[in-house]
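JOB MANIFEST
job_type = single_chain_structure
chain_count = 1
residues = 149
[input]
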Amino acid sequence: MGGLLLGGRGRLTNAAHRQKAIELIGEAKASGATLTAACGEIGISLRTLKRWRKAFLGDGDGEGRRRGSPRHVAHRLSEEKRQRILLTCNQPAYALLPPGQIVPALADQGLYIGSESSFYRVLHQAGQCHRRGRGTCSNTGPAPSSWKD
């Protein structure tokens, strides 16, 4: 019942509400209530309380669990390779070809810069992953004259 005050199960509870809940549970514990009962009244589990307390330890502000992956990927494309892929794709000989044709053409010359998916990824990140080729996108012509407004 009390969980609705904190947003409910699976909802993000902001740091101020978490701090207030920790204080209320501390007061209930000082009054003689068990932690499990106090947490149950608020609508959280004992494990959640422990996790919240850990987030506020030291100079913690209770935020910052979602930081992303701290690991370094060893096989990530270097910035030099990214630039080389972009320069290659923008050369006049390859400007009209999709990566599925650029990579084999380079392989025929004995060059390997990256895979086809790497070419697509780099072009997408650079905002150049649009239709590449001589054919134009299908343009819609004017509406038939038989159509009435």
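[summary]
The mean pLDDT is 84.
The two ends are 57 Å apart (CA to CA).
exit_status = 0
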